[in-house]
């Protein structure tokens, strides 16, 4: 029987394979760049998913290039939602945007402070506005994001886990055409891993140069872009980008189409913030990971997941079970229909550690 560590690693990869398929997608047209493919969601609004030499990684986001990003092409300029994992990935995005427009990038919005959304910030000149909540600026200016979570564990495991998965699939595959495709994916992944290890040395955390508290409305030609802090949730400073005319929200990791990383979470407030999100008049959510989705019911399903997780975690904690053991024992499979990345009992350990720490914080209040 496979070890617990092996099962968790394989489950991680399976969750990534499912991430891009959790929601049926409308047939949005696609524009292909060298490193990114852009789904055209509305006029001037593109959902960017990273590739590598034409290989689409089975993440719903690329471990080497980071989160899925949003490109908003306005009358005279371009606004980006998040900047990816490294300066190189951000430069690749900027180059690929030339497939969409020659308009200048004048504005970047960081949905939150995590490395896969902000480590491309440094390529932008000071005259480009980088906007986020005050909390994001504080974190990037004072916190050692390159030696702490989620960067430390994620960058050490994501690429190697994907490589191991392709190696296992290749060994088991007998169809020549499928074998050839897997060889390409494996070669591309190994090459991207080597490049990423080099890219990490170039990362320079760069804080936003414009901050806001609760709401900031941008007018870019005929387009209105609302930046909203709806409350703490995935982190203490999540921004939701809302396009009221287009009925589109960009939620970063506050709401994904898969189970989000919970290592920086504020659990009870997350539930409340998601209620505020549901009240916005949107028809499409462009998340930081996974795939675009159109059903607000998925938000309610994630709220149900969070409530269930807290109930089970509190019970195990009261029994004296450690956070690491509780991460193995909780059973969230009742939510697998909504989130097919749930492949069996257990949750990501950093989220459970944070749940325990959060419960300690509630007791001290």
Quick structural overview:
This protein is α/β, with parallel strands linked by helices. Helix content is 39%, strand content 18%. The protein has a domain at 15-149 and 203-311: Metallo-beta-lactamase, Chain A, CATH 3.60.15.
List keywords for this structure.
365 residues, five-stranded mixed β-sheet, 10 helices, alpha/beta, disordered N terminus, 14 strands, Metallo-beta-lactamase, Chain A
SSE map:
Elements: H1 4-19, E1 30-32, E2 36-42, E3 45-52, E4 55-56, E5 69-73, E6 78-81, H2 87-97, E7 105-109, H3 115-118, E8 129-133, H4 134-142, H5 151-172, H6 176-199, E9 210-212, E10 215-220, E11 223-228, E12 240-243, E13 248-252, H7 267-279, E14 284-287, H8 297-318, H9 323-329, H10 349-364
Parallel strand pairs: 6-7, 7-8, 8-9, 13-14
Antiparallel strand pairs: 1-2, 2-3, 3-4, 3-5, 5-6, 10-11, 11-12, 12-13
Helix pairs in contact: 5-6, 7-8, 8-10, 9-10
Shape: globular
CATH class of the domain at 15-149 and 203-311: Alpha Beta
The largest pleated sheet is described as:
9 strands, mixed
Give the SSE string: HEEEEEEHEHEHHHEEEEEHEHHH
- The amount of helix comes to 25-40%
Q: Which percent band covers the strand fraction?
A: 15-25%
Q: Indicate the CATH topology of the domain at 15-149 and 203-311.
A: Metallo-beta-lactamase, Chain A
Question: What structural class do helix, strand and pairing data support?
Answer: alpha/beta
Number of beta strands: 14
CATH architecture call of the domain at 15-149 and 203-311: 4-Layer Sandwich
- Helix count from the secondary structure assignment: 10
Tell me the name of the CATH homologous superfamily of the domain at 15-149 and 203-311: Ribonuclease Z/Hydroxyacylglutathione hydrolase-like
Radius of gyration, whole Å: 20 Å
Point out poorly predicted stretches. Answer: 1-24
Q: How many angstroms does the end-to-end distance come to?
A: 45 Å
């Amino acid at each position: 029987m496979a070890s617990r560590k092996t099962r968790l690693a394989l489950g991680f990869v399976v969750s990534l394979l499912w991430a891009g398929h959790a929601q049926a997608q409308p047939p949005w047209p696609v524009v292909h760049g060298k490193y990114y493919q852009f789904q055209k969601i509305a006029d001037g609004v593109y959902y960017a998913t990273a590739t590598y030499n034409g290989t689409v990684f089975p993440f719903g986001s690329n471990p080497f290039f980071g989160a899925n990003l949003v490109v908003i092409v306005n009358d005279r300029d371009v606004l980006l939602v998040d900047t990816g994992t490294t300066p190189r990935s951000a430069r690749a995005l900027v180059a690929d945007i030339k497939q969409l427009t020659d308009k200048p990038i004048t504005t970047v919005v960081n949905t939150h402070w995590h490395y896969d959304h902000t480590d491309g910030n440094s390529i932008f000149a000071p005259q480009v506005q980088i906007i986020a909540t005050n909390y994001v600026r504080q974190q990037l200016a004072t916190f050692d994001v390159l030696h702490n979570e989620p960067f430390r564990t994620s960058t050490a495991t994501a690429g190697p886990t994907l490589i191991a998965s392709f190696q296992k699939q290749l060994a088991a595959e007998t169809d020549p055409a499928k074998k050839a495709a897997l060889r390409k994916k494996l070669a591309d992944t190994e090459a991207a891993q080597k490049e990423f290890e080099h890219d990490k040395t170039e990362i320079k955390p760069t804080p936003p140069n414009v901050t806001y508290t609760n709401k900031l409305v941008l007018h870019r030609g005929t387009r209105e872009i609302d930046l909203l802090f709806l409350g703490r949730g995935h982190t203490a400073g999540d921004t939701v980008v809302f396009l009221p005319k287009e009925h589109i929200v960009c939620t970063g990791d506050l709401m994904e189409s898969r189970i989000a990383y919970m290592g920086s979470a504020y659990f009870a407030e997350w539930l409340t913030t998601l209620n505020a999100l549901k009240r916005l008049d949107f028809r499409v959510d462009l998340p930081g990971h996974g795939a675009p989705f159109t059903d607000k019911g998925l938000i309610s399903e994630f709220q149900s997941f969070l409530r269930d997780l807290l109930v089970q975690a509190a019970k195990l904690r009261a029994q004296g079970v450690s956070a690491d053991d509780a991460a193995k024992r909780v059973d969230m499979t009742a939510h697998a229909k909504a989130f097919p990345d749930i492949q069996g009992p257990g949750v990501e350990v950093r989220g459970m550690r944070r749940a325990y720490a959060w419960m300690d914080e509630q007791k001290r209040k």
